[in-house]
């Protein structure tokens, strides 16, 4: 899933990290036979800030809540993945190593050695960072293998939409997007929640708000999706984005069974030769990823029901 791999490359950057607070190390959660300690929690806060440096702006209580949620999800995924993969073998995966290389280059480190020394100074570990990325990559692979056959794509309908849209295209717009995915639950009050999200975005920024509210895997990285051509998006999303300027946030958009709120971080317009086939394939990929993300959320909740989680 190319889009998901790109996410990791786009959003890693380093700022100064909060110092690790000295505290007594104790077990705070037990998940089957796995444990989470108070020391793990503080380290996770620092890893999260690596993924999204703007998290430095939120208060310590919110950061602690995010770190705990992140660790719980990671442990649940790791337990399930152990039934299908050997995670350690993936640490030398070509894609993962490329992500790590892009990470330290974009962060201003001249080589992996300097990057590793920086992590050591922060009480962090390169192999643990690689393992976190590996878990997300393998989880995406697992979801793809389990649910790919259940993805329903109406190619004929998408082709008709593309044919209609390219007639209007003289220039192609690309959006750098961030998202907040809202799970459509029985008692959901979407308008009230939307107002809370807008208020939060004004106070702490959209990326930090995504960490707090979004159910998507991209939440861990500030909701960043990256650059997407408008021809890859659904007509409903294009309609909503066409009404927005750079920096503005959309109203809730119905996406499959859930809602998605999008922010335009940047826009660029270019004149290009229209490649109908490529546009159609990009649209199909986008629709497929939308459905797979929904399966990912549902499957994580299903796995969680079969795991014993005890707060100590």
Describe this structure in words.
This protein is of the alpha+beta class. The protein has 2 domains: 2-149, Triger factor/SurA peptide-binding fold, CATH 1.10.4030; 156-288, Chitinase A, domain 3, CATH 3.10.50. It is built from 11 helices and 7 strands. The strands form 2 sheets. Strands 4-3-6-5 form a 4-stranded antiparallel beta sheet, with helices on both faces. Strands 2-1-7 form a 3-stranded antiparallel beta sheet. The radius of gyration is 20 Å and the shape is globular. The two termini are 38 Å apart.
Ordered list of secondary-structure elements with their pairings:
Layout: H1 2-11, E1 27-31, E2 34-37, H2 38-51, H3 60-81, H4 94-106, H5 112-121, H6 126-147, H7 155-166, E3 172-182, H8 190-204, H9 206-213, E4 224-229, H10 235-242, E5 253-255, E6 258-270, H11 276-305, E7 309-311
Antiparallel strand pairs: 1-2, 1-7, 3-4, 3-6, 5-6
Helix pairs in contact: 2-3, 3-6, 6-11, 7-11, 8-9
In short:
The chain has 312 residues and is α+β, with helices and mostly antiparallel strands.
| Low-pLDDT residue intervals, each spanning 5 or more residues | 1-22
Number of strands: 7
Helix content: 40-55%
Could you give the order of the helices and strands? HEEHHHHHHEHHEHEEHE
Overall number of structural domains: 2
CATH class of the largest domain: Mainly Alpha
CATH topology of the largest domain: Triger factor/SurA peptide-binding fold
* Biggest sheet character: 4 strands, antiparallel
Q: Going across the major beta sheet, what is the strand order?
A: 4-3-6-5
Q: How much beta, percentage-wise?
A: 5-15%
């Amino acid at each position: 899933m190319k889009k998901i791999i790109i996410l990791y490359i786009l959003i890693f950057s380093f700022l100064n990290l909060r110092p690790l607070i000295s505290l007594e190390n104790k077990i705070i959660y037990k998940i089957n036979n796995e444990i989470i300690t108070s020391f793990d929690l503080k380290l996770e806060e620092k890893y999260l800030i690596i993924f999204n440096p703007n998290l430095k702006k939120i208060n310590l209580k919110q950061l602690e809540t995010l770190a705990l949620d992140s660790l719980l999800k990671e442990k649940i995924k790791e337990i399930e993945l152990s039934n299908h993969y050997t995670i350690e073998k993936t640490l030398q995966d070509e894609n993962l190593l490329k992500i790590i290389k892009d990470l330290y280059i974009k962060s201003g480190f001249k080589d992996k050695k300097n990057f590793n020394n920086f992590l050591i100074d922060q009480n962090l570990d390169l192999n643990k960072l690689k393992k976190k990325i590996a878990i997300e990559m393998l989880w995406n692979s697992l979801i793809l293998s389990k649910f790919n056959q259940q993805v329903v794509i109406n190619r004929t309908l998408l082709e008709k939409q593309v044919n209609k849209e390219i007639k209007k295209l003289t220039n192609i717009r690309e959006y750098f997007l961030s998202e907040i995915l809202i799970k459509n639950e029985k008692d959901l009050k979407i308008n009230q929640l939307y107002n809370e999200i807008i208020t939060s975005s004004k106070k702490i920024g959209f990326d930090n708000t995504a960490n707090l509210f979004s159910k998507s895997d991209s939440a861990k990285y500030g909701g960043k999706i990256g650059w997407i051509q408008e021809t890859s998006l659904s007509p409903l999303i294009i309609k909503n984005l066409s009404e927005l300027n750079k920096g503005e946030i959309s109203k809730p958009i119905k996406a499959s069974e859930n809602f998605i709120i999008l922010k335009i971080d940047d826009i660029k317009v270019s004149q290009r030769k229209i490649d109908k086939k490529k546009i159609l394939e990009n649209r199909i990929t986008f629709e497929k990823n939308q459905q797979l993300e929904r399966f990912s959320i549902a499957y994580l909740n299903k796995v969680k029901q079969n795991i014993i989680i005890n707060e100590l």
